[in-house]
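Section 3.1: Structural characterization of target chains.
Under the original work plan, the team committed to producing a structural model for every single-chain target entering the pipeline before any wet-lab resources were allocated. The record below documents one such target. The sequence was received from the expression subgroup and is listed exactly as submitted; it comprises 180 residues.
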Amino acid sequence: MSVELRHYRDVEEIRQTLVDIHIEVRQRDFGLVGDFYSAARFNQRLSGHSSAPGWEAIVGYAAGEPVGFAYCTPLGPSTRWWTAMTTPLPEGYTDEDGTRTLALNEIVVRRKWRGTGIAHQLHEDLLKGRGEQRVTLLVNPRAGDGKVQAVYERWGYEKIGEQQPFPDSPVFAAMMRFTH
């Protein structure tokens, strides 16, 4: 089945699609409950991320139906991304200027299309043509009994530490890879 990939820079064109897929996958498929995984909190995080300069999303469609999405935000000089690290990082590692590091904020694929390579396709197409030197993401190390983190490792990411960005969020593995 062929998947059409569409890029977006205006969140309002796709906000409801992203929220709907997020709820379907995180709550219904994976059983993740609590305020952190609610539609309202995801929508709040989405608003914050998409208001940053350079935000971009990609949505995959098969026969007009959305199959998954990913979105990213460059880390600017005043980013709060690194403040939740529970692991110290080397001097200068967290210095940001809006062009050094891209945060992959979300990548979500609906059940029917998991295991088809669409997540990797979304990921690579989203990063294609970006100018940042490196890309970082957070993953729950317990997701899929560690299988999700292992996927990111196969894609070239390395764990650099841990962070807990919200009091009610899991402790995530912080991962990084170079883009070039």
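The CA atoms of residues 54 and 73 lie 6 Å apart.
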